[in-house]
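Quick illustration, no need to memorize.
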Amino acid sequence: MTYSVEKPAKIHINIMELLVIEEIEKQLQFYSKKKRDYINQVEVATYALNRLPALYASTYIGKEHQKRLGQQKYKSQIILAVRRALAAVERDPLRKSVPLVSENQAQYELAKIALKKLEQLFKKQGIIPNNQKLSWNNLQKIIYPLITKVKSQNIKRHEKEFGTLTHVSNQLATEQYKVARASKLKQ
């Protein structure tokens, strides 16, 4: 689906999430830094939110209304839910969990892996110096001259460089398959 000014993305948010996050931050102020760093705030929020009503909004006016409603009507419930959530998360210090990863985060991680592999290949091939970092900002500046060079050189050299790029493409596809498979196995 394509979005534009005429057709904006439609979103909704649960205002209760914002209120819970604010309360977690308030209550964590009373913890030592070491303990604050140890506590998984996402788990605390999830625990508390599962015990509170949702307050969804899809407009700015609705957001302000739901925020006032949550602060007035549910303040004591939010405080109690967060207190209990903190206690529950603290109670089990040896518990390990595998967090959920959003599709966007998974794509971002794949892109980081692909960029790192390109950087390693370009350094190995002498395309960029060993002290240069490859980024999404400078990638086009590095690849464009390569493409121009490939177009202007004879077919054998072109096949060699194209083979290298094909090899990298195959490696990236393999890495993407592994990450996708690992993601599915975790579910």
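Strands lie at 13-14, 56-57.
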